[in-house]
Amino acid sequence: MSEIEEEAFKIIQSKPEGVLQSELWKVLDIDSRKCSRIVKKLTDSEQIERIEYKSDGVKTYLLKARKRAVNPSLLLAGGELLPCIGCEEECTVEECPYLMDWMYQLAIEEFSEG
């Protein structure tokens, strides 16, 4: 991905409600044709979705980043699922003993593999 494509993707990703394509090219300080080519590459690679949108009676597109599926292996350590999933405890990340134990197990696994 080129630098300008990465920048466009980051802008789109930073706005969960979406970014209008007619605004994106202005923010990137590029012409609308170049912006269209960048948007096409991002939609073809399924990183964003492009939704038809009318703004002040003018047709444009709303661009939204697609949510990627989480790699399940990132939620496991020592065969144990990330303890925060489904947890109902009232704690903070810095003080959660379940999370600390899980992270310790993850560190052991990484050290053992290295």
TrEMBL record:
Query: What Pfam families does the annotation carry?
Result: B-block_TFIIIC
Alphabetical list of InterPro entries matching this protein: TFIIIC_Bblock-bd (IPR007309), WH-like_DNA-bd_sf (IPR036388), WH_DNA-bd_sf (IPR036390)
Domain B-block binding subunit of TFIIIC, by residue range, is 12-66
- Any idea what this protein is called? Lrp/AsnC family transcriptional regulator
